[in-house]
Predict the structure.
Amino acid sequence: MRPAQLLRILNQEFLSTSTGHHTPVMLLGSPGAGKSQMVAQIAAAHQAPVIDIRLSQMEPSDLRGIPFRVGSRVE
């Protein structure tokens, strides 16, 4: 898919969230292809914040927190 097509789709998906019709989008491609930049571009156009999470650089506890013992359970 060409970048212009992807930008159009990302924009449509962003706009669809206001009507409750949102389809999650997963971008796959080689490093440096511009995936994050395209998402940031759409967010900037709609003045929306972006939280960039790089899963390859995180541990499971980074996302879910450190487990603690509470009584006989672990939370």
